[in-house]
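Can you give me the bound-state structure? Components:
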Amino acid sequence: MGGNSFGTIFRITTYGESHGPALGVTIDGFPAGIEVNKELINQDLQRRKPGQSKIVTQRKEDEDFEILSGVFEGYTTGTPISVIIRNKDHKSKDYDHIATSFRPSHADFTYSEKYGIRDYKGGGRSSARETAARVIAGAFAKMLLSKFGIEVIAYVSRVGHLYMEPDMNPIIENIENNIVRCPDATLALEMIEYIQTIKKEGNTVGGIITCVIKNVPAGLGEPVFDKLHADLGKAMLSINAVKGFEYGSGFKSAEMKGSDHNDVFVKSDSGKVETSTNFSGGVQGGISNGMPVYMNIAFKPVATIIRDQSSINQEGEQVTIKGKGRHDPCVVPRAVPIVEAMAAIVLADHLLRKQSDKISRIQV
Amino acid sequence: MGGNSFGTIFRITTYGESHGPALGVTIDGFPAGIEVNKELINQDLQRRKPGQSKIVTQRKEDEDFEILSGVFEGYTTGTPISVIIRNKDHKSKDYDHIATSFRPSHADFTYSEKYGIRDYKGGGRSSARETAARVIAGAFAKMLLSKFGIEVIAYVSRVGHLYMEPDMNPIIENIENNIVRCPDATLALEMIEYIQTIKKEGNTVGGIITCVIKNVPAGLGEPVFDKLHADLGKAMLSINAVKGFEYGSGFKSAEMKGSDHNDVFVKSDSGKVETSTNFSGGVQGGISNGMPVYMNIAFKPVATIIRDQSSINQEGEQVTIKGKGRHDPCVVPRAVPIVEAMAAIVLADHLLRKQSDKISRIQV
Amino acid sequence: MGGNSFGTIFRITTYGESHGPALGVTIDGFPAGIEVNKELINQDLQRRKPGQSKIVTQRKEDEDFEILSGVFEGYTTGTPISVIIRNKDHKSKDYDHIATSFRPSHADFTYSEKYGIRDYKGGGRSSARETAARVIAGAFAKMLLSKFGIEVIAYVSRVGHLYMEPDMNPIIENIENNIVRCPDATLALEMIEYIQTIKKEGNTVGGIITCVIKNVPAGLGEPVFDKLHADLGKAMLSINAVKGFEYGSGFKSAEMKGSDHNDVFVKSDSGKVETSTNFSGGVQGGISNGMPVYMNIAFKPVATIIRDQSSINQEGEQVTIKGKGRHDPCVVPRAVPIVEAMAAIVLADHLLRKQSDKISRIQV
Amino acid sequence: MGGNSFGTIFRITTYGESHGPALGVTIDGFPAGIEVNKELINQDLQRRKPGQSKIVTQRKEDEDFEILSGVFEGYTTGTPISVIIRNKDHKSKDYDHIATSFRPSHADFTYSEKYGIRDYKGGGRSSARETAARVIAGAFAKMLLSKFGIEVIAYVSRVGHLYMEPDMNPIIENIENNIVRCPDATLALEMIEYIQTIKKEGNTVGGIITCVIKNVPAGLGEPVFDKLHADLGKAMLSINAVKGFEYGSGFKSAEMKGSDHNDVFVKSDSGKVETSTNFSGGVQGGISNGMPVYMNIAFKPVATIIRDQSSINQEGEQVTIKGKGRHDPCVVPRAVPIVEAMAAIVLADHLLRKQSDKISRIQV
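Here's the bound-state model for the whole set.
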């Protein structure tokens, strides 16, 4: 049973292998009447794109997208929005050496076990190429959220041993004006230098992305299973290379006492209910409380390294996997728009789910 | 739009407020022909039960369950299994003091905002009382998994500052023979003592539960969204008080290099494909690879503390919340069976989802 | 994979066998803030109840329902509403004679084939006893619909050869003041007499129920698959003994010409867009157009007859099934509230689904 | 909330407007390892294609499909299969006359009401052009079913007043060797002549398609809501212009007695359990019993007629809709492959759903 759809009302379905003819996404449940911002789609695709800087893979991917349906004269119509990206830079010869071998910590072995057949070119469906479709869907989600002032911002907060304290009010310009997407300019330089060193070694390194969602209205989230943070967690964990998720105080909360951790309710000068601290991460009982939602997402080091590695092949024989190809030394700079996209999709879905939760909201 | 169902083929729907007449669960999609182990249900409910030891809440809950459907002469029939637990120890007078006030870091405010109405008795639907229904469903999932040798074991690996290194091969007896459910006997004693101190202070403390799933067959998990670890993550994050989830190398992977993190494939003496290390946590590309699956789940300190706390009420006026009632100083000892239950439900669901993934499996 | 849930936002899950301890339903997604009308639930259960008149089965069923959750001080809370009915009149001895035989045109054989195990008491899950849960859920749906003036009315329009022309504006009193639930008083008497004759013969007869939904707002229905009439069709076809469904002009449309069938749009005196005829049955392109929605549902004759019938048993041997027990000579009088319930559930679901279909409707 | 997905395990999502850039379908949940039969896809598209004969619309549609994903070296891989058809013959000028008017019995008014925006070119999403995507998905479903000997055959059994008795064992060659797709050669000629007369009048006429599914294994169908015939009914009712659905004895059962209607179980010479009659239509209690499944689907006359018709426009003013364009005088000949496609999709879905219904079937 497939798992290629995500969301309930704002529901996306993606398809496409890294070296097949195309990849794409269909969004069902997008409201009618929203002006489509193609520039935003393009911009987020560019932020995810390989070859965008010296610290990411130099592999080329074409990101020309085409909207196939659901938009009429520049506005959404309420019917499914389908968007396609053609693959051009196939170079499938590059992959013959792994057609029958299992690369360490890749999905080669598990796909073979599960399906008994495997599209080995460029990792097939398991390639992070798939996330381009998510970025497109995320851009549409952002268009919806922006109508209500909701803003999703992600940035790199750790690369290997280099990290910063969480910034709850990050400035987009500070993030996007450096190639590693870290809002701390000094740290960004260190991170870039470190990634270049790693790259020279033919190695890779992990990192953390922090995501902050501002102006979230209170009342989003559907207990007891579809809690807002639970859906955010699943969304993030479904991104390639993610190994951990925490929101608010996260893993640190395990060391804290209740008297330190509780967020006291206060009334702001404008009359809004707020909390004086925000260990809750903007979510209480699985429902947003009106405070900023924030979370950390841990990415493992990319599995492809430019070194010879021992492995086995389909026949169970020991083989040596040659390290070659063009891959990212560190995935987090390019994963920033992917994290934003998945966060935006979850928020958009819960915004739409909220429409029917009390009788006083229902319109005929 | 509600969020009270979980799973796709093995699908549970829960209901019930902490101080209403009853709570329960309906499991749809459970296969026919499995002998029902009532003792297992009872045992897991006892492990979750309040009042079971001196380090948990002394509140009494009745855990007499009744199977209402889906079982005939001791075996499942393939029709929905519904199980009910009656609530007896209501004592709803205890809650009048919070009927119109919002307890810090509880779900009082968010439920009010979302629904415009609130069952304030004992937290209503947001109470962890709800997890008894999950434990029942989890026991049924374990009955299914045990037919295939799959075993789910959870234990407490951290309470506040006290922690142990992950044990990938925990012994159930070592876990269950102490009241904090930590397999390290010495550490368990320290934890118990620490929780008692916390309790005397009227305070609470957080902790971490580690869960290990053994004998998972390769091939479970449905990319690209319903990856095995993504569904596990959502399952865990949906449990009350959980703030973080990581699997395999988790957050530590963000500091690691690819050359250290990659798990090398080897062939075991028995001819099975294995990996020499298991930073992947038994999951690659979202699909199980046959190695043990393991994860850590972070719990915040319980929000109810026996201290006066400042807050506001429904009218936005500042109030003082009196600290009283019978609550857990540390939630992790009782949350162990809940973690196991959610893990078992996810595994059972993916075991059933796997049945149709290749033509050679399909039976008419 | 089970099929015991229905609906998307207004989503019901039912459980229970006819001779098990209980049956029930959980409704997830019901909006908060609606006053619960227990009398309506009771009334619809009474209309479905066996033994209510001389033309229905004299079998006794207890219909005392209990609301277990989702209601606080008389109002819905937005959390799942679970309602239970205990079974009392088991008499399971009655069914020993069919424990291993397959009654003709019953579900005995197919359940055995599918599940390899069978709860043979009273048909188990395949018994129409199950529909009591639907009636309860339907009563809740009616409570929601009534807030918006939407009214669901069903009546018997055919019993065997006796039938009436469709009445698009039926009067409830005319329906409910006779035991066969036909609004044509003269025809009702004939139908009652005919059913009594059939009953004396130990035989059964089929019939048709017509359902009219008034004051449906324009815009309900979700093309291209979840068209309003497609969901109504599935809802009706899921009721025991239903063999056919048509809406608007239905099967007659197959004989008509476009020039006769097209419904001309006109503006009513009040300024509302209407159609001068209503062959469309209130639905165009799968979306309600503001005109009354109407449909016919065909029921086969009940399979249980008081005659000896030839069949086979589990071993494939030829056996004679003795005709005995208390069953309905004609199912349609008691099925009227079931049809209404399923129609109400579909309408309620689509009313809630409509909340997010255009940006101008979305509320934060 | 959108409704553009259908099925549970075999799950399709379609997109595309009649005069947009493209239409398409993504199939999630298709098993890996099936050889793709492109000729079958092409053949079914040709059977649905406009302009194929003198009795269908002469409008041209391009049916060149492209498989974008999910297939590797001719075999399915278990990942989503996405197929696209580009639209070429746009001619959108044809539609300016209806941009602001509501054609009688079309979906113009209801789409406007629902979404507040409308792609008026060629009916946009409400056009039957959308069904090309279903035919593609249906061809994939047939590829799966054929592995298990299951065969889906549909034919025209009524056009206006001309009809035939149901043929439970239709010969495909007899159906496909005439342009109206009626297996009775004499009746086919009459139907063709009649449709030509209707066409000359600028009028349209309705009809009925009968569908027979052979070699259905016992045990398909998921009570109590996802009964096999209920899902078939929804599938058929979701097709443009369908007004009614019946299976087995259908509406006739309403006039029958139980003693005549019951299907007696017998053991065939080969030892298989069969029924001596098949009023049940191969389904009992919502589950297939191994006998042929058959059903009738009623289609209304096409709403577009070459006559002036009175209507209103968006401003509520009375207007005259000019009858022009190239449309079908009778939709049933071209709808035969659409009916087959939807039937095949339902059967494929239930075949996959069946895999987990008893413990003895589960494979790890």
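A couple of observations. Residues 17 and 125 of chain A are 4 Å apart (CA to CA). The mean pLDDT of chain A is 94.
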